[in-house]
Amino acid sequence: MASEEELFASVDALLEEEPQLPPPAERARLREAAGITQARLAVALKTSTQTVKNYENGRSEPKSPRLEAYQRLLKGWAAKYPAHTSSAAPAPVVAPQPEVAETFTGSAAPEQAEVAAPVQAPAAPAALAAPERPARSVTLRRPAAKKAAAPAVDPRFPHGPLAVLDGDGSAYGAGGIVLDCPATTIPELVEWTLRESGLGAAKLNRYGKDSDPLIVLTAAAAVKLGLPERLEGHEQRRSLRLPEDHPVVKQVTKAKWQLTQRGFGPWARIYRKAQGRERQCVQLAIQSWDALDERSWPGVSEMEPTDVARVLGVYAQRVITPRGSTAVSGLELMTALRPPTKAVRDEETGNWVSGHNAGSLGAEPMDPAPPEATPEHPVVVNSGWTGGFLNEEAYQWVRSVDTLSDEECTLPFAVGLDLNTAFLAAAARLVVGLSAPDHFHAPKFNPKIPGSWLADLSHIELDPRLPSPFTPDGSRPTGAAWYQTHTLAYAQELGHDVHPIEAYLRRETGAYLDPWHDRLKNAYVDTLADMGVTKDLTDVEFLAAMEQHKQNDPALAAVLAAIKATVKGGVGKLRERPQGKSYKEGETWPALARPTWRPDIRAAVISKARVNMHRKLNNMVKMTGLYPLAVLSDCVVYPSPGESPLDFLPYAASGKPQPGAFRLGPTPGLAKLEGVQSMLWAVDLMEQGLNPARHIKGGDAVLDEGE
Length: 707
Fold this sequence. Notes:
- By secondary structure, the protein is of the alpha+beta class.
- Helix content is 32%, strand content 14%.
């Protein structure tokens, strides 16, 4: 049977085009307020089977009894349950476009995302008071930028998606509100969060689920609720868990709440089985247990609760309410935007049942092709596969100093360029496989079919001053190897014949990551704009703005870092490796149970990103005659006559940047200045076999390889 949530979504979908009805968000509020169950709604709308079929076939009847019955219900609920404020009406939800999965014979054009725009609710009350003491209002020490200060919320969740709880019972929410939380135990905190707090967030797709509320515990709040201030042990702190006999774990169990298999760690989920539409789940994040690690959330662990709430609130508004690390959130965002199931009507019984949502990865995990898997995967170990593996990874290449010309050696500077969220740019309009792989021998290469191809590219002559586009280390291939479609397509683009020996291909395809790309791109661009880096800046103004944008607002700088970590980590989670010393090859590991364990999709993103980088490197040679010194993932270092990218990037006579080469700008795929050092410094590192791109910013850059 379909869940009540899916049934309501389908009823709304059938009636969404009716101008006589209130908008979907208002219908949802009224049903929620009236406490309507699936059975009651079915009875209320049970009129004519033919009318239902007419709606499904797009032939709505304006005077249909079903519509009139629904209108009467809505009017009655509206009179009984008026909106809690009479200010601006909710904004309409964007009507999603239908998604159709593609096949070999179909077009490779990307599909439109079925993403519901969040509803702009009236301003939330300043606080939600507990009976024991009045709530208080607070003012942030640093007011948020206009967009960040007024997050979009659902009327059912007037206080936003999350709160940061301190030791005196004050729960700081997004937008500067403060709630009074009387809880003294974890079970009491969970009950308060679900029953009184008004926290949560609306679903991102009509077939998805609402986001569960997040409570972040400061060190003082953790101690007050009976938790240790720190988790100590030999493993990384983020991997530690409370023992099952800990008093807090016993309290949770005694109150008939459950913990997920991850146990009670830095990100703990506490839940009861859902009853109908009522999801009962709260996400906890314990700050002093390194839930908000420094690499993904720089500086947040040292912030005051009001600023932590602001950082996480902006992230939740623009990306998703955090459910774990930024990597976990990146993966959860994919599923939230492309839910695996939706309610469909059973033609035989007339009942609504749960069915596959076209364009998604489905509800069941899928085995990869052997060359797409990791060496320890059961598919490899149990089959005895020895045919090699895909090696689609980010660039780590340093040019040989022997290829440097005298003219290059006399240039004074080495300038590093960094591509903004290169993996995110590669995910745009990326067609990936949605079905299981099929094995083919001696197939004809088709650049529109996603998959893994065995081919020999070792005969292709390459300029030693550029990295090979076919290998992560930039070296020339030495024989037959497995390549993702984009890598072979680029070989063809460069004018070489491609003759695959065998391939694992997928018949059903689609642009699965499109809504994920769109949401993260908007989050990245909007956050940069709030920091003063906008699209309308000239290149000179852009470089100046980027020099000081992090100092302008450390909270938004942390949001920006988290968005970038979400992209990288989400891609890496598509091929999560086993963890723990006790693991043995051939065993399954928890990540394999997810439909989103898809190493082929990760390979497609990284292959396209590397190809995009090489295409720009090639175009730079054609336009300027310049060759790079080194590349590390999305960072490239060039010799330069000056300290600015403006000294060597190609511009037309009109002053506009030349298309096809590296261009400066704030959007994914465009470049920014990574760092400047002397040419002598760069050559010294190259002679030692070290990568200047790793160190040009100062310190040790993190390889952005999607892990």
